[in-house]
Amino acid sequence: MLLTVALVALLVMSGETPPSPSAPAAPAGEQTELKPGERKVRMICRNEQKAASRLVKRRCMSVEDWKQQEEDAQRAVKDIQDRREINPPCLGSGRGC
To answer: How far is 86 from 97, CA to CA, in rounded Å?
Structure first.
């Protein structure tokens, strides 16, 4: 079960393509006015392909959201690896595990 989760996490992480240039929020020369409390957010879009699928899905998120997703994926893989060290598999000692 843990091995399956680790493989899925690694496949998701490796399925990412390099960021493509994001489109400008407004046409050149035209500035939109921000309301109080609003801020400009730089969006990055990536084409992602799931394992064993030919379908490509375009996902657009802010730079902060992409960073958070990458940190979450790394944390999940590290947690799985740490749990595996606590309960190592039987290493052929000849005794029942």
So the answer is: 14
Q: Partners of 58 in the beta sheet?
A: 47
- pLDDT (tens digit, 9 = 90+) per residue, 3-58? 455 555 555 555 544 444 444 555 555 567 888 888 888 999 999 998 889 999 99
DSSP state of 16: P
DSSP annotation string for 28-51: TT--PPPPTT-----EEEEEEE-T
